[in-house]
# Entry
Amino acid sequence: MESYLIAVATMVLIYALLAIGLNLQYGETGLINFGHVAFFALGAYTSGLLSIKGWPWPLTFALAAGVAALSALPLGLAALRLREDYLAIVTLGFSETVRIVLQEERQWTNGVQGVPGIPKLYASWGGSVSGPALMLTLLAAVGLAALATHALKSSPFGRLLRAIRDNEEAVVALGKDPARYKIQVFMFGAALAGVAGAFYAHFLTFISPEQFVPLVTFYVWMGLILGGVGSLRGALGGTLLLVAFLEGSRFLRDLLPGVAEVQMASVRLAVVGLAIILFVLYRPQGLFGAAGDSSMSKRPGRRGSP
# Structure
């Protein structure tokens, strides 16, 4: 039971890193990113493949963040010209392109067979210690990311991001250039996703393209909406609630005789979908957001050329 709880806590923290990055992109800057899983996958494969070759994990984690951030640069440039709906389509297409490349590039990624044998962090310490040690390391990473994001939100840079989100034309009229700020935010959020992917690879010790489908991105979106878009507390709390529900609902099958595991997965998604609809209608600021502080409800339509 203890091992199971540690595993669940580890997955919560991995999704928390993803949520912090996505919240910075959308909640603070208004950039819709439906391809967040692509940076998650690039980080996982970068760290996993290099660690198999004997590279030390601190270096592979740094490279995972760097590769993910650099891959976000073209999307950041695209965000300068695309409206929200077009940007959403482009980022979703990017994530599927990355997944297909990982699936077809057998020489480097082993294709659909995946990458086995990724070293587990602290494996030399023994199985009873390596799991908690990885979780604590991940907790420290989430804490640092949360502190950095909080400091950024409280800074003039953060206030400018929110101004870009609410009224980009006014920011331009004041002589500011939103372009470089959008690119920086896209790259920073992608770097956090890359680090999350590196932790994921070393936690499972096996990765394959099927683990990085668009559903992962939408899980993160679900957590943000449930917790509160634009709120760091909402990103963390919503992720915890979502993973707790997805894991806890596994045990409901014992109370529902005749329901197969595949059917139960559909029931879980249906319940989460219904919860999101109700939250958007009756509590758009999310469970942990303050009343009247919903980024979703007050974000204006964005003008721009497709």
